[in-house]
Write a structure and sequence with these properties.
By secondary structure, the protein is mainly α. The chain has six helices and two strands. A two-stranded antiparallel sheet has the order 1-2. α1 packs parallel to α2 and α2 packs antiparallel against α3.
Length: about 130
């Protein structure tokens, strides 16, 4: 999971929930990086603290169904518990302006190489990092 993946997660979960009605589908929400573990600490989604939960993560976790083909699925229940733990981790994490600035530099460089404009796709992130 990266910061830029979070806004699209609710739509993805809705789609996966529909697929699970036909056959079991499993997916992973591993974080792109851990807190202050290199080499790219700015990829850790918690650099925005609890804001990341508001950008779609909470909704995705709430939407995530713990059944497969209409039957309870303990793997999915355990996974939902794991996702709730990630949300709690981000809820308790203080925002990290230095890492946010590094993340902005990273996205700016991708834009330069690809001739894109990330700020128009992720305005909620841009609002926080634009003055860093």
């Amino acid at each position: 999971m990266t910061v830029t993946a979070v806004p699209g997660m609710p739509a993805m979960v809705k789609y996966l929930n529909e697929c699970n009605k036909i056959k079991p589908v499993y997916w992973s929400m591993m974080k792109a990086n851990q807190h202050e573990i290199g080499p790219r600490e700015y990829m850790y989604p918690g650099i925005f603290g609890k804001k990341i939960n508001e950008w779609g993560l909470r909704e995705a976790v709430e939407l995530f169904e713990t059944t497969s083909m209409g039957q309870p699925d303990t793997v999915k229940q355990n996974y939902k518990n794991y996702m709730q733990g990630i949300m709690k981790e981000f809820e308790e994490r203080e925002p990290m302006p230095q890492r946010q600035k590094q993340f902005k530099i990273y996205l700016d460089e991708l834009d330069r190489r690809r001739s894109t404009k990330w700020a128009t796709i992720y305005p909620q992130i841009f609002d926080i990092v634009k003055d860093l």
